Amino acid sequence: MNILILSCSYGVPDYTLGNSGRATTTSNIEYYLSKHHTVFNLSTNGSSNWQAIQRAHEFIDGSEVEHIPCGQDAYTTIQKPADINIDYVIWIGTSLLRDQHIIHVPTLDQCIAELQDITYNEMKKLMQKIPTAKLIAVGGCGPIDETALRNVLPVHYCIPDWRAELLGMEYTEHLSGGAKLNLNDLITDPRLSKHLSMAQTVYTNMHGSDAFPDSSHPGGIAHKGLYEKILPHISI
Asked: Burial level of 199, CB count in 10 A (0-12/13-18/19+)?
């Protein structure tokens, strides 16, 4: 099977660039998948969902795109071989709020709702460009609304909030997912303090969790668990 991975640093084979205390090239989701499949990993550090999907568009169109090869610790480029079809797209979503600059609305709830609609529809366009592929969606540094996503496009398998599962929480949120917000634009949001409190809870829980060795990113044990969840949904 040919598998395309899209994500932020949650999907990078060695996002630490050599720090052995975190997820490494031999304990990342790509490493486990590549034992039995051909994997094209377009994940990059700090990526937003929009940026990840645009890299995938460029890759499918035949352009060279940036990535970090499994087993290396520096960026290089990758290009889709002309003679292969993609069988699965694994999208490990990040915080929707990383794309806040795309829209201008007065509250975080509105911002999340509009960015969710934009992101899910852009994913639909990508998947329509790859008719051979099935989508596996994983809520990573930001949760995925599975019902809303399935209302937009076919989804083969979904883990709505991997981070919440690792933390033993019912739900995380988007503000703690590396979002660079201009809070001055949201100072009148009546729910801003609630969002900030929830983000602080997520940060605190990650700091005390063995699943997040650096208090921010899922480590090797978490990635192996993710692989084991996904594996039954991928044909050999």
From this structure: middle
| 166 closest CA partner among 92, 90, 88 | 92
* Cα gap 180→177, rounded to integer Å: 9
Taking the C-alpha atoms of residue 142 and residue 195, their distance in angstroms, rounded to an integer, is 13
Q: What is the pLDDT of residues 163-214, one digit of tens each?
A: 999 999 998 888 777 666 665 566 567 777 788 888 889 989 999 898 988 8
- Of 229, 233, 226, nearest to 29 (Cα)? 226
Q: How many CB atoms are located within 10 Å of the residue 15 CB?
A: 24
Tell me the two tokens of residue 132. Answer: 């051979």
Helices (H), the chain: 29-33, 49-60, 108-129, 146-152, 162-167, 192-207, 220-230
| Spatial separation of the C-alpha atoms in residues 142 and 163, rounded to whole Å | 8
- Show the low-confidence residues of the chain (pLDDT under 50): none
Q: Give CA–CA dist 178/223, Å, rounded.
A: 20
Count Cα atoms within 13 angstroms, Cβ side, for 60: 25
Full-model pTM: 0.91
* φ, ψ of residue 148 in degrees (nearest 5): -65, -40
